[in-house]
Design brief:
The chain has 199 residues and is α/β, with parallel strands linked by helices. The chain contains 8 helices and 8 strands, in the order E-E-H-H-E-H-E-H-E-H-E-E-E-H-H-H. Helix content is 33%, strand content 15%. The chain is globular. About 3% of the residues have low confidence.
């Protein structure tokens, strides 16, 4: 079993704007990289090159763990490289008004909670981060809240996603590998598998 994810704590970073797609999160030219290891340094690279004031360029937000975004975050292509780039930059949770479903699923499969909040509440926290970049916040999947100092908002996520994170059942590939021995034993006991030669 993977580690359970009940809370994510740390400072935040706000990336404003709707419909931020996966090509903006990690430009397509980086899909050729053989491993995901160095993707973090290229997160939002084109946006950062065209806008020196982009939050991911700002020293005040370096080391942030929680990303606050707006509507339809992670839309576009289904590339796994987008959440990989965010995770390797340091992001451990994303709070947004809404997500593209495939992006959200890719994040959950990596143990990264993607939770939603109202537009008004997301805006409150984005403002809060920009004024208080070093103030820690806590995303609590048990109480379904995001809290920083006196500011607290309700968050939501699909119950199946929440349950898999809380129970440490989010890493499907890891669970299959852990159960490989039991799968082999079961396969060996099946008459239509054991010794099957084919035609």
């Amino acid at each position: 079993m993977a580690a359970s994810v009940t809370t994510v704590e740390g400072t935040g970073i706000a990336v404003r704007g709707n419909d931020i797609d996966t090509d903006r999160i990690i430009p397509a030219r980086f899909l050729r990289m053989i491993t995901f290891d160095d993707l973090g340094q290229h997160a939002f690279e084109d946006d950062r090159l065209s806008n020196p004031d982009h939050p991911f360029n700002n020293d005040r937000y370096q080391g942030a763990s929680l990303l606050l975004a707006n509507g339809n975050f992670g839309c576009g292509s289904s590339r796994e490289h987008a959440p990989q780039a965010l995770m390797r930059w340091g992001i451990n949770a994303v709070v947004s008004e809404s997500f593209a479903e495939i992006f959200q699923g890719n994040c959950i499969a990596m143990g990264i909670p993607c939770v939603t909040a109202s537009s008004e509440d997301v805006s409150k926290f984005q403002d809060h981060i920009e004024v208080n970049p070093t103030e820690s916040m806590t995303l609590d999947l048990v109480s379904k809240t995001l809290t920083s100092g006196d500011l607290s908002i309700p968050i939501s996520l699909p119950e199946g996603n929440r349950k898999s994170l809380l129970e440490g059942a989010w890493d499907a590939a890891g669970m299959l590998l852990e159960g490989a021995g039991a799968v082999k034993e079961t396969a060996a006991s099946l008459p239509y598998v054991n010794g099957f030669q084919g035609n």
